[in-house]
């Protein structure tokens, strides 16, 4: 018998899966890069209202988020059920909104400051009193560009 | 002695591990962007500034009370009728001479607005109004403006205002952006969004 035996040619060779990890890793890296983790942990209920005349908010780094609503279930024992403002990761009073805006401005590059937008993520059951207090503070801080963040849908659903 | 090669590490499970991570990131990814109604707040002003005098006929008052009920021009109204009423007011165009409105198709009611450029919608809400209702009202009023802008853009340039703005913000749009910006400005000047918000009553 010869040492160099010819392979049988009739058998189907197994599909080579050696490159499968590479492909999966490629996808993995894509999603790792594209993932935006939630910046803030929500401490308030945040069921956004519906609207259909909306504009998109691109450029996430130019947006300052202000949340408002009733404290979530697990904070209700401590903070009650009165609607509150959340800035970054903690509850705040109305007076702190201005400080928050100044601090956010400080952290941005100077040429970007005129493009900063404040996104108000307010629960739909909140009373307007709180919202207009926030708006007054924003006016004092000269953060005039605001956006009421909504869910795209028929606005009639807010009323029913 | 026979030469032995080092045994290969079995990498068969690498794919499994990578899949696990992949699925984790797939699930946690949120690519969607936020959207909402953009508004510009007025400058902060000291209390003692005299407000400019505006003719009553050019003001469209919308009030929302703490029970989320609408009072439009002293009459109760359902939210679904608000858009139509606002369009009717803005598009009235009863002005003559300097204040004439060349493109208005409204009823030219002498008790209503003279020109979209003069017409002001005044929105007043109560501190107890629900935010959802407030957004719904804002949405209807913005929709009224957009409806008129779309109509005029369609008449003058054969495309909707929305489409023009979309093209303008689209980085991949290959057309004359300066000309487009000019067209947008023309429409915005014809029908400016004059939405004034009073401080809420408690």
TrEMBL record, chain A:
What domain of life is recorded for the organism?
Bacteria
Q: Is Transmembrane helix one of the keywords UniProt gives this record?
A: yes
What is the similarity comment for this entry?
Belongs to the ExbD/TolR family.
List membrane-spanning regions.
20-37
Pfam families attached to this UniProt entry: ExbD (PF02472)
Q: Which GO terms describe its cellular component?
A: plasma membrane
- What are the record keywords, sorted? Cell membrane, Membrane, Protein transport, Transmembrane, Transmembrane helix, Transport
Which cell locations does it reside in? Cell membrane
Which organism was this protein described from?
A: Christiangramia sediminis
Q: Does the keyword DNA repair apply?
A: no
- This protein is called what? Biopolymer transporter ExbD
- Molecular function GO terms recorded: transmembrane transporter activity
Q: What coarse category fits the chief subcellular location reported for this protein?
A: membrane
Q: Which GO terms describe its biological process?
A: protein transport
Task: Give membrane topology per the record.
Answer: Single-pass membrane protein; Single-pass type II membrane protein
From TrEMBL, chain B:
Family designation? Belongs to the ExbD/TolR family.
Record localization: Cell membrane
Q: How does it sit in the membrane?
A: Single-pass membrane protein; Single-pass type II membrane protein
- Print the keywords alphabetically: Cell membrane, Coiled coil, Membrane, Protein transport, Transmembrane, Transmembrane helix, Transport
Can you supply a Gene Ontology BP term from the record? protein transport
State what protein this is by name. Answer: Biopolymer transporter ExbD
Q: Which residues form a coiled coil?
A: 65-92
- Lineage, broadest ranks: Bacteria, Pseudomonadati, Bacteroidota, Flavobacteriia, Flavobacteriales
Sorted alphabetically, which Pfam families does this protein's record hold? Answer: ExbD
Mind naming one GO cellular-component term on file for this protein? plasma membrane
The entry lists its GO molecular-function terms as: transmembrane transporter activity
- Its primary localisation, in coarse terms, equals membrane
